[in-house]
């Protein structure tokens, strides 16, 4: 018997820490237009190369190229740009307001705006998204009233969630936006169940589920994909791989030589890996997966490859665990700049219109904030305390009635 | 009326619900083609179709998550967890999602699901086929927990649970699926045949959630029990010769506090009986509520007869199970003061 080698526990490390030069070596970014587009009605077994490529449409010059270039109108692209810009400006404004103590907490989605905005515009009004806390652009693309967001963030008297929920954890049923919760991944399976229900009713609606790459390590992710695969649930299941789960780099959630999209293979559903900063690629992949779902061929797992340009939340300082200039060196760029460049390239946009839109959106956001501040910021206004006792059950039971009286209400 | 055991009564409740409400569907491990490991879903797939009653992957978290999503869509799912001992992988879904959905969404979404699960001991089930986890659900705001003790209630409570717009954990005492059990394992097995509560109407009816039943009226001491322990307590009361009032809680949440308080104020004494282990068991909540509301009527300390604070053992089944002898001791002790 040969001598046994002493074992060593392997702990993955990111390629660069604070003070070290940014290092994206080994990150393979294929040319836009270079990846094949399989027939969405084709056989899953014939698509198992897809999770290891990266679907990209917009080239360096802002041209839409290759088989994935979607058939979308300039109007839709301008709506998308508007939603992304609105999200970015809103995030910046609310981040500052948190620093002023007007809300207790905020989370930006900087750099990831293309994903929610494009998917919101590609899916139907009756479809339902099961979001993470970083998909504000879905609501922006559907013209969700800014004042509702502001009131929720201030937990004031007009908060649509009646002061019960942490800021950012919105719920907007009429806008296809399922109730958020702080628990990571626990709604991924709800998306699958919702999709199964649509199929059970012979409806034509589909569900969209989101998790971040860190959350793929939760059991819920495995459970949801098992159900999605087994029952051919008409759902689009998305992993937003923004490289960071708070301070933890993506390599802690998945071994380096595979991809998050590749997890689809084991569950028997197609996996696509898509440039998440390419608005057109997000549109195209969503359209592809929706066509497949509508044809009763079930779910698709899409990994959106992107980068969390901002801190995890207002409680986080990313300079403590990654190089300070890492975001600006991200090879896939900024989704807003890339779509803006494309629209200018095709003659459907210009700098003056962009500046005017920025000014218009800034004023809309400032007006909503002023309106919300007039109602009250955190601690200055709140819904009636009786709301604390409502909604535990459909009808309150004796315990909450008694406890409400104990509080003198 | 038909004579049914508890399995047949539950099956009948599901059959009636599937027939009357197209938004109701059933899934869980082995519930489809096979009809369930305890036969509760027997022939439902054959009768109502593949999409109405189907098999699920062995994934308790996945089952409850899918049911919550279906509920958000507008269906009324009834899912089975094969043993209550195996509900824990779905605990996060029940606690963090089903129980909170209505509250956290300001009423935009809710979870009208029913989670059926066989529970309780007395069957040599050992550690993972015997547990009584009702207290860990009772502590969760937003969940209802229901436990029947006979075929009539089982059917009526199950239909009421399914029709309820709140999430309900429906625990079925598997020891009494086939017949009442009085806690005397050395005696011959009884069936439900001839028992007054085994006469079950064939059509639709409900037993309201949140209403206890007075199984035996009495004047000297109040006994609170549910599930299998209702029968064990009744047998103990009869042997004791005391005029005890036996209350079958039926619902853990919502709790019928009025019936309990009225009884204890009348008798001045109370013994609580449950299979689950004692420390932080549901008996502790009952005891506290009674102490708060009936303090000046109490003539003796409130007694608790429970499982021991150990995992549920195999060889020591009848040393662990709170049988008639221990209940009689507690009754006599309550009467001594």
From TrEMBL, chain A:
Enzymatic reactions: N(6)-[(R)-lipoyl]-L-lysyl-[protein] + 3-methyl-2-oxobutanoate + H(+) = N(6)-[(R)-S(8)-2-methylpropanoyldihydrolipoyl]-L-lysyl-[protein] + CO2
Entry GO MF terms: branched-chain 2-oxo acid dehydrogenase activity
Domain Dehydrogenase E1 component: residue ranges: 82-375
The keyword Oxidoreductase is annotated on this UniProt entry: yes
GO-annotated biological processes: branched-chain amino acid catabolic process
Alphabetized SUPFAM superfamilies for the sequence: Thiamin diphosphate-binding fold (THDP-binding)
Entry-linked CDD domains: TPP_E1_PDC_ADC_BCADC (cd02000)
Cofactor(s) demanded: thiamine diphosphate
Swiss-Prot/TrEMBL keywords: Oxidoreductase, Thiamine pyrophosphate
One Pfam family named in its UniProt record: OxoDH_E1alpha_N
InterPro entries listed in its UniProt record: Alpha-ketoacid_DH_E1_comp, DH_E1, Oxoisoval_DH_suAlpha_N_dom, THDP-binding
Class of this enzyme: oxidoreductase
Gene3D superfamilies with a match to the protein in the record: 3.40.50.970
Domain (2-oxoisovalerate dehydrogenase E1 alpha subunit N-terminal) ranges: 6-39
Enzyme Commission number(s) from the entry: 1.2.4.4
Listed transmembrane segments: none
Family named by the database record: Belongs to the BCKDHA family.
Known function: The branched-chain alpha-keto dehydrogenase complex catalyzes the overall conversion of alpha-keto acids to acyl-CoA and CO(2). It contains multiple copies of three enzymatic components: branched-chain alpha-keto acid decarboxylase (E1), lipoamide acyltransferase (E2) and lipoamide dehydrogenase (E3).
Name of the protein in its database record: 2-oxoisovalerate dehydrogenase subunit alpha
Automatic annotation (TrEMBL), chain B:
An example Gene Ontology molecular-function term: branched-chain 2-oxo acid dehydrogenase activity
Transmembrane parts of this sequence: none
Record domain Transketolase-like pyrimidine-binding: where: 4-179
UniProt-recorded name of the protein: 3-methyl-2-oxobutanoate dehydrogenase (2-methylpropanoyl-transferring)
The organism of origin for this protein: Asticcacaulis taihuensis
EC number of the protein: 1.2.4.4
UniProt GO BP: branched-chain amino acid catabolic process; response to nutrient
Superkingdom of the source species: Bacteria
């Amino acid at each position: 018997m040969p001598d046994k080698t002493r074992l060593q526990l392997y702990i993955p490390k990111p390629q660069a820490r604070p003070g070290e030069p940014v290092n994206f070596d080994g990150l393979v970014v294929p040319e836009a237009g270079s990846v094949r587009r399989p027939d969405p009605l084709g056989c899953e077994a014939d698509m198992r190369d897809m999770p290891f490529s990266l679907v990209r449409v917009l080239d360096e010059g802002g041209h839409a190229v290759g088989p994935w270039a979607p058939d979308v109108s300039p109007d839709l692209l301008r709506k998308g740009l508007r939603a992304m810009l609105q999200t970015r400006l809103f995030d910046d404004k609310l981040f500052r307001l948190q620093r002023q103590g007007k809300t207790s907490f905020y989370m930006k989605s900087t750099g990831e705006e293309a994903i929610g905005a494009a998917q919101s515009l590609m899916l139907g009004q009756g479809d339902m998204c099961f979001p993470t806390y970083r998909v504000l652009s879905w609501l922006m693309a559907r013209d969700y009233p800014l004042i509702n967001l502001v009131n929720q963030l201030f937990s004031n008297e007009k908060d649509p969630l009646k002061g019960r929920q942490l800021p950012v954890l919105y719920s907007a049923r009429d806008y296809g936006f399922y109730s958020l919760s702080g628990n990571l991944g626990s709604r991924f399976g709800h998306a699958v169940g919702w999709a199964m229900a649509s199929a059970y009713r012979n409806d034509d609606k589909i569900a969209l589920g989101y998790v971040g790459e860190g959350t793929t390590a939760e059991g819920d992710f495995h459970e949801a994909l098992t159900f999605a695969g087994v029952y051919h649930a008409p759902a689009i299941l998305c992993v937003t791989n923004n490289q960071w789960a708070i301070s933890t780099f993506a390599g802690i959630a998945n071994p380096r030589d595979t991809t998050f999209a590749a997890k689809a293979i084991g569950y028997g559903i197609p996996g696509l890996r898509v440039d998440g900063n390419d608005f057109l690629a997000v549109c195209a992949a969503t359209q592809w997966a929706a066509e497949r779902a509508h044809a009763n061929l079930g779910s698709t797992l899409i990994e959106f490859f992107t980068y969390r340009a901002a801190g995890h939340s207002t409680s986080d300082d990313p300079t403590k665990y990654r190089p300070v200039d890492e975001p600006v060196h991200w090879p896939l760029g900024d989704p807003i700049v890339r779509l803006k460049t494309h629209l200018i390239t095709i003659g459907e946009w210009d700098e003056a219109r962009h500046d005017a839109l920025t000014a218009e959106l800034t004023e809309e956001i400032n007006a909503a904030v002023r309106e919300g501040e007039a109602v009250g910021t955190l601690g200055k206004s709140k819904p009636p305390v009786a709301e604390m006792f409502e909604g535990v059950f459909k009808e309150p039971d004796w315990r909450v009635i008694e406890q409400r009286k104990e509080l003198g209400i | 009326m038909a004579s049914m055991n508890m399995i047949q009564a539950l099956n009948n409740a599901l059959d009636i619900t599937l027939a009357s409400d197209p938004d109701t569907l059933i899934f869980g491990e082995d519930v489809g083609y096979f009809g369930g490991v305890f036969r509760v879903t027997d022939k439902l797939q054959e009768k109502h179709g593949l999409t109405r009653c189907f098999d699920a992957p062995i994934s308790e978290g996945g089952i409850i998550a899918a049911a919550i999503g279906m509920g958000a869509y507008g269906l009324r799912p009834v899912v089975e967890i094969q043993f209550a001992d195996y509900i824990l992988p779905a605990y996060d879904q029940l606690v963090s999602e089903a129980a909170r959905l209505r509250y956290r969404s300001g009423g935009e979404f809710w979870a009208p699901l029913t989670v059926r699960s066989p529970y309780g001991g007395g069957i040599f089930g050992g550690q993972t086929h015997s547990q009584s986890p009702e207290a860990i659900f009772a502590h969760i705001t937003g969940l209802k927990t229901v436990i029947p003790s006979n075929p009539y209630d089982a059917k009526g409570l199950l239909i009421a649970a399914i029709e309820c717009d709140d999430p309900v954990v429906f625990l079925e005492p598997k020891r009494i699926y086939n017949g009442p059990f009085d806690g005397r394992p050395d005696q011959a097995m009884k069936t439900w045949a001839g028992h007054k509560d085994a006469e079950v109407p064939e059509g639709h009816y409900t037993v309201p959630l949140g209403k206890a039943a007075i199984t035996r009226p009495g004047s000297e001491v109040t006994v609170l029990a549910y599930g299998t322990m209702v029968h064990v307590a009744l047998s103990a009361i009869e042997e004791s010769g005391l005029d005890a009032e036996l209350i079958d809680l039926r619902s853990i949440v919502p709790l019928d506090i009025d019936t309990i308080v009225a009884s204890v104020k009348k008798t001045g004494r109370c013994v609580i009986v449950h299979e689950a282990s004692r420390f932080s068991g549901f008996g502790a909540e009952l005891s506290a509520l009674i102490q708060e509301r009936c303090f000046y009527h109490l003539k003796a300390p409130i007694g608790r007869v429970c499982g021991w604070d150990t995992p549920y053992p195999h060889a020591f089944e009848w040393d662990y199970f709170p049988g008639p002898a221990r209940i009689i001791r507690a009754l006599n002790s309550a009467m001594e003061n």
